[in-house]
């Protein structure tokens, strides 16, 4: 069944471990602020035992999120073939997107402040179909620039024949 979402014989590229590190940092900051603050408010406004319950829930959610981030990070991959680009991701709901080079209209590279700090960017492919969700997060800046240039050149070459 896995070959349905990751065809064998392809040279699959993975995303940078910095994506996992960034997402874990965000999880730590959010739960590190929201968890204790909620526990203090629950303890002051309701009862001390509720503060303990809220803090325990925050710890469980943190551990679960830490584990899920790793699984999600490992699920991302892409492969460049002769006529198209394959992008796969997802843990519970797997997804494989096949984008023919001739259908690409433009390639978008984005990086927010935290992504730039971690040295990663997201490459997003735009086609005539708005339903095409072909984006690859967590690429190193050099990898994103190289992929952007290769895809743009291949898209131009394939679209010229239409």
How many distinct domains?
2
CATH fold annotation of the largest domain? PH-domain like
Radius of gyration equals: 20 Å
The succession of helices and strands, N to C, reads: HHHEEEEHEEH
Under CATH at level 1, the class of the largest domain stands as: Mainly Beta
Question: Number of DSSP strands?
Answer: 6
Instruction: Give the overall average pLDDT.
Output: 89
Question: Can you offer a commentary on this structure?
Answer:
- It is built from five helices and six strands; from the N terminus they run αααββββαββα.
- With 162 residues, it is an alpha+beta fold.
- The chain folds into two domains: 17-72; 76-159, PH-domain like (Roll), CATH 2.30.29.
- The strands form two sheets. Strands 1-2-3 form a three-stranded antiparallel β-sheet.
- Strand 1 and strand 2 form a beta hairpin.
- The radius of gyration is 20 Å and the shape is elongated.
- This is YdbS-like PH domain-containing protein.
- It comes from Thermasporomyces composti.
